[in-house]
C-alpha cells in the first residue's frame, strides 16, 4: 500500500512511469522543434466577482498536487524508452494587478500572449503556468496554460471544474469532497494491458481492412498540411434556438446531435470540394469504461471517419450513415492514429490520414467560484495540421462554432468566408433535412475554385457576402462585451465607456424607447451632438428594433423639419440643448445618460411613471430585412431623399469592411464623419463589431493640420477614415513641414471625391509604404462603400 503525502492528503505515487502512447506522439513532435510553443494549450476563466485570490491559490495548488501528469519531466533512457519523472517541484502562482493599465483587458491579453509564446523544455520546465490577472474591481482572470503532453481538452476541463469545486467549498467554510482524481499509474497500466491484448490486435486488423484502399482525404486548403503552431481562429455564436433546432432534427432522425453535426460538416466539405467521399478526423476521448475517466492526462485520440456523400440523398440519410460509421469504429477508437500512420506506411510522406478535424464538445462551460459566476474562454487547443471545426454546446443553451486553421494554409479572409458559409449551410440543411443534399433549395456554398480565384484577383471590390450569411451587428457588439467587458469601446476627450457599460446603457435606453412607442422596422430620429450619448442612442434604437435616422443639430430649421415630416414625424431622441429645435414633436430628452420625456412635447408620449421596472423587459427579435438606418441625401440635386438600409445589408457591409480593413481589437478607430453622413457607419460599426476602440473626434482637432496630427498621435489612433478633401489638406500640410503622420497609424481610408494624383505621389514620398492608403467609393443607396482600392502612387 502507498503511504500518503501529509501536505496534500494525496497517495504517494511512483517516482517514474513509462510515457503513454499519446505522450510519445507529442514528445516526438516537440523534439522536432524544441523552440516552438505550438503544443501550449490554455484556458482563461473570467470570474465575475471579487474572489479571494489567496483562497483561489490554495484551491489551485491542492488540485494540481492531485494531478500527477502536470508534474512530469520526460527523459529517454539508453534503450530508447521514454519515461516521465513525476517528482513534484516548486512552481510559481502569478498574481498580476492590471487595474492601473490604460486598457486592463488588453494588458491581460498581452500577458497571456507572452506566456503562450514561451516554449517548454519537457525535460526540465514545469508543464504549466497558473496566474490570476486582475482587470477590474470585481473581475479576475484565472489563466491556466498546460503543455499538451500532460493533458488533453477533457483533462484540462476536469482540472478547471475541480478548482472551482474546491474554491467554492473552502469559501463556504467547508472541506471539499474527498473524491479527487485517480492515479496516473492506473492509466499507464491499463494501456500496457490493452496493447498486449487480443482487442488491440483486432483493432489493428479492423483499421487495416477499413482503410485498405487508403482513401485520399480532401482539404479545404490548397497546400500540403503540416503541423503548425501558428493558428488562426474564427468563432460565431448561434442562439439557443439554433441548438434546439439541431437537437430536434437529430431526435427526429433517431440520432445523436453530434452525428447530425458530423453529417452536416461532411456535406459541407463535399459541397465545397465537389468530392464524393470525405474523410474527417474525429477526436475521441478514449475514457469511457477506462481508468482515465477520473485522471487528467493525455489520452485523446483522433480517428478517421469515412463518409461517402451522395448528393441525391437527404441529410437524414447521411446522418444515419454517419451514426452507423461511428458505431462501427467505436470499439477501435483506442488504436492510436500515430500507429495507424506507421501501419499504412505514411510516416515520412505527405499522405494524410484524414482531412478537416471535427470536434464535438458537449461540455458545460459554466463555472462558479463561491457566489460568483465565471465564463471559460479557450485560448488555444494546440497545433493544427489543416483545419479544425469545433461545435460547442454552451452553458446558456447556445451553440458556438469555432474554426481553427493552420495559418500557413489559410488566409484570415478565407477562414472567415468558410465560417459564415458553413453556418449558412448548417441553417439551410436544418431547414430541409429530408430534401436531397444537391437540391436547389440547399444554399449555394463557396467552392475552392472561387476561393482560389479570389486569392489571385486584385482585392478592389469590397467582396460583400450575402446579407443573410452575416451575424447582426448587435450580436457582434454583444460578443465583444462578453469577451472583453472592460475594454474601452468609446473614447471622447477624457470620457470613456467600456463595452460592458456601452451595452448596458444601450439596453436600458432601448427599453425606454420601446416604452415610449418605438416600433420594429420604423425610424427613430437621433438629434445629438458628437459624444458618447449618440453612440449609445444609435445602439439603443437598433436594440429597440427600430432604424435610426441621424439629424444634424446645425441644420437650418426648414431642412430639419422637412426631413422629419418626410420620415412620418418619428420619435426624436435629443438633449436639453437642442430640444427647442423639435418642440411640439414626440421627443425623448437624454442628458448625462438620463432619459425623460419632454413635457411640452406631444402628449401621446408615455409618461415617466410607466418607465419603472423596465430592466427585465424583453427586447424585440428583429428580422434581417427590417430597417437599420435612414440616411438623407444632401439635396444638392433636388429635395433630400431618405435612403433606407436593412439590418441584413448593414451586417453584410460591416463584415466586408472589417475584413477589408483588417480591423481588430488592437485598433483605435477615429470617428471623423458626422453621424448623418454614411461614412460614420463604417467607423462606428467597423470598431464596435470587432472590439476596437472608437475615438470620437473633437472640434479642436480641426483647428489646423498640426493640431489634427498631434491629436491623433496623443490618442494613439491606428485607423483614419477621412473625406478626400480633408486628406488633401493633411497631405499639403505635411508636405509644408506642418507635421508628420503618427507612427501608430497603420491605414488611412479616404472617399467622397477623386484623389488628386499629385497628392497621392506626395503622400508616398512622406509616409512609410507600410501604411495602407485605401480609396473607397459607394453611393448612399448601396450601403456606404461598394469598391475599395489601395493607392500606390504609381501609374
From TrEMBL:
Molecular function as annotated in GO: 2,3-dihydroxybenzoate-serine ligase activity; phosphopantetheine binding
Pfam families the UniProt entry points to: AMP-binding, Condensation
Listed InterPro entries: AMP-binding_CS (IPR020845), AMP-dep_synth/lig_dom (IPR000873), CAT-like_dom_sf (IPR023213), Condensation_dom (IPR001242)
Entry GO CC: cytosol; enterobactin synthetase complex
Gene3D superfamilies found in the cross-reference section: 3.40.50.980, Chloramphenicol acetyltransferase-like domain, Nonribosomal peptide synthetase, condensation domain
Domain Condensation: 17-446
Domain (AMP-dependent synthetase/ligase) ranges: 478-788
Superkingdom, taxonomy of origin: Bacteria
GO biological process: amino acid activation for nonribosomal peptide biosynthetic process; enterobactin biosynthetic process; lipid biosynthetic process
Protein name as annotated: Non-ribosomal peptide synthetase component F
Amino acid at each position: 500500500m502507498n503511504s500518503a503525502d501529509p501536505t496534500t492528503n494525496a497517495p504517494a505515487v511512483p517516482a517514474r512511469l513509462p510515457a503513454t502512447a499519446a505522450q510519445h506522439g507529442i514528445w516526438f513532435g516537440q523534439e522536432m522543434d524544441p523552440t516552438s510553443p505550438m503544443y501550449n494549450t490554455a484556458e482563461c476563466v473570467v470570474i465575475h466577482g471579487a474572489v479571494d485570490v489567496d483562497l483561489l491559490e490554495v484551491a489551485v495548488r491542492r488540485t494540481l498536487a492531485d494531478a500527477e501528469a502536470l508534474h512530469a519531466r520526460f527523459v529517454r533512457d539508453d534503450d530508447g524508452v521514454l519515461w516521465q519523472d513525476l517528482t513534484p517541484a516548486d512552481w510559481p502562482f502569478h498574481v498580476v494587478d492590471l487595474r492601473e493599465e490604460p486598457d486592463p483587458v488588453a494588458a491581460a491579453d498581452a500577458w497571456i500572449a507572452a506566456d503562450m509564446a514561451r516554449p517548454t523544455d519537457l525535460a526540465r520546465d514545469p508543464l504549466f503556468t497558473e496566474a490570476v490577472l486582475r482587470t477590474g474591481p470585481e473581475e479576475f482572470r484565472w489563466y491556466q496554460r498546460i503543455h499538451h503532453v500532460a493533458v488533453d481538452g477533457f483533462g484540462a476541463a476536469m482540472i478547471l471544474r475541480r478548482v472551482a469545486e474546491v474554491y467554492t467549498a473552502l469559501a463556504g467554510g467547508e472541506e471539499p469532497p474527498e473524491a479527487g482524481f485517480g492515479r496516473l499509474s492506473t492509466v499507464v497500466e491499463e494501456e500496457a494491458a490493452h496493447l498486449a491484448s487480443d482487442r488491440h490486435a483486432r483493432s489493428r486488423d479492423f483499421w487495416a481492412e477499413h482503410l485498405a484502399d487508403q482513401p485520399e482525404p480532401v482539404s479545404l486548403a490548397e497546400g500540403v498540411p503540416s503541423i503548425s503552431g501558428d493558428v488562426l481562429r474564427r468563432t460565431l455564436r448561434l442562439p439557443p434556438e439554433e441548438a434546439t433546432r439541431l437537437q430536434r432534427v437529430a431526435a427526429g432522425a433517431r440520432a445523436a446531435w453530434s452525428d447530425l453535426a458530423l453529417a452536416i460538416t461532411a456535406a459541407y466539405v463535399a459541397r465545397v470540394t465537389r468530392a464524393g467521399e470525405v474523410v474527417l478526423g474525429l477526436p475521441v476521448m478514449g475514457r469511457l469504461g477506462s481508468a482515465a475517466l477520473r485522471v487528467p492526462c493525455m489520452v485523446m485520440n483522433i480517428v478517421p471517419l469515412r463518409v461517402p456523400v451522395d448528393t441525391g440523398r437527404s441529410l437524414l440519410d447521411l446522418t444515419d450513415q454517419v451514426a452507423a460509421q461511428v458505431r462501427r469504429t467505436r470499439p477501435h477508437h483506442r488504436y492510436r492514429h500515430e500507429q495507424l500512420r506507421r501501419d499504412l506506411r505514411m510516416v515520412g510522406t505527405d499522405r494524410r490520414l484524414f482531412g478537416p478535424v471535427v470536434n464535438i464538445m458537449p461540455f458545460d462551460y459554466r463555472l462558479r467560484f463561491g457566489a460568483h459566476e465565471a465564463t471559460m474562454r479557450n485560448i488555444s487547443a494546440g497545433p493544427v495540421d489543416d483545419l479544425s471545426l469545433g461545435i460547442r454546446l454552451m452553458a446558456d443553451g447556445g451553440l458556438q462554432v469555432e474554426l481553427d486553421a493552420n495559418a500557413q494554409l489559410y488566409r484570415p479572409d478565407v477562414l472567415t468566408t468558410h465560417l459564415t458559409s458553413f453556418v449558412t449551410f448548417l441553417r439551410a440543411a436544418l431547414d430541409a433535412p429530408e430534401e436531397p443534399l444537391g437540391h436547389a433549395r440547399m444554399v449555394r456554398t463557396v467552392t475552392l475554385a472561387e476561393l482560389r480565384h479570389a486569392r489571385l484577383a486584385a482585392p478592389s471590390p469590397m467582396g460583400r457576402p450575402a446579407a443573410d450569411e452575416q451575424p447582426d451587428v448587435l450580436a457582434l457588439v454583444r460578443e465583444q462585451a462578453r469577451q472583453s467587458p472592460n475594454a474601452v469601446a468609446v473614447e471622447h476627450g477624457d470620457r470613456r465607456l467600456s463595452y460592458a457599460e456601452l451595452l448596458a446603457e444601450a439596453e436600458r435606453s432601448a427599453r425606454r424607447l420601446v416604452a415610449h412607442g418605438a416600433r420594429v422596422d420604423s425610424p427613430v430620429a437621433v438629434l445629438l451632438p458628437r459624444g458618447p450619448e449618440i453612440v449609445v442612442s444609435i445602439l439603443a434604437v437598433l436594440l429597440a428594433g427600430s432604424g435610426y435616422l441621424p439629424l444634424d443639430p446645425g441644420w437650418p430649421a426648414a431642412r430639419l423639419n422637412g426631413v422629419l415630416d418626410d420620415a412620418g414625424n418619428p420619435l426624436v431622441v435629443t438633449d436639453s440643448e437642442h430640444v427647442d429645435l423639435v418642440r411640439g414633436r414626440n421627443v425623448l430628452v437624454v442628458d448625462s445618460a438620463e432619459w425623460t420625456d419632454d413635457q411640452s412635447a406631444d402628449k401621446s408620449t408615455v409618461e415617466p411613471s410607466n418607465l419603472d421596472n423596465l430592466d427585465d423587459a424583453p427586447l424585440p427579435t428583429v428580422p434581417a430585412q427590417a430597417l437599420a438606418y435612414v440616411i438623407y441625401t444632401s439635396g444638392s440635386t433636388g429635395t433630400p431623399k431618405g435612403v433606407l438600409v436593412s439590418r441584413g445589408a448593414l451586417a453584410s457591409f460591416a463584415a466586408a469592411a472589417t475584413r477589408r480593413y483588417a480591423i481588430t481589437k488592437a485598433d483605435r478607430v477615429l470617428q471623423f464623419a458626422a453621424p448623418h453622413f454614411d461614412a460614420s457607419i463604417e467607423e462606428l460599426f467597423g470598431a464596435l463589431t470587432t472590439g476596437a476602440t472608437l475615438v470620437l473626434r473633437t472640434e479642436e482637432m480641426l483647428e489646423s493640420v498640426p493640431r489634427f496630427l498631434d491629436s491623433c498621435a496623443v490618442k494613439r489612433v491606428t485607423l483614419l477614415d477621412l473625406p478626400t478633401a480633408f486628406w488633401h489638406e493633411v497631405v499639403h500640410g505635411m508636405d509644408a513641414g506642418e507635421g508628420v503622420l503618427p507612427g501608430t497609424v497603420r491605414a488611412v481610408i479616404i472617399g467622397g471625391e477623386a484623389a488628386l494624383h499629385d497628392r497621392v505621389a506626395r503622400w508616398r514620398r512622406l509616409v512609410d509604404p507600410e501604411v495602407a492608403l485605401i480609396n473607397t467609393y459607394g453611393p448612399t443607396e448601396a450601403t456606404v462603400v461598394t469598391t475599395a482600392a489601395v493607392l500606390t502612387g504609381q501609374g
